[in-house]
TrEMBL record:
Residues 1-20 form the signal peptide. Residues 114-134 are annotated as: Disordered. Keywords: Signal. This is Uncharacterized protein. It comes from the Bacteria.
Amino acid sequence: MKFLLSTFFLLATLVTSANAQMRERHAELPGSDAPSAARIDDLTRQISNQLRLNEAQYIRLRALNKIKLARLDEIQWQYQDDAPTRDAKLMELESQFEAECSRILTPSQLSIYHNGQKREETPEVPVNNEGGIG
């Protein structure tokens, strides 16, 4: 009986300490969890609809998006106080993503993807200079 009670006490102590260590780990690295499946699916579905991917391409792109989003969260958390380094790391991540996309996508799909990216990056210019000088 004493052996059973001491074993139970030891097991309870180990579980409690392991739980405390996991809480500390999450407090130290809040961005270390993997991105949600819904977030990965939304991004992949958006790209898939735009580029009309086949099933094999969709599966490979989903895996690639999972890695990209996890790394993106990690970079943003890790370099939150160092904007120049964060921006450089994000540019590096984007170039790695595009290199991997070039292995998955056909040349025409890659061209559509790049055109969509350029359109998103280009700021809109006012048509008749309203609110501007001159």
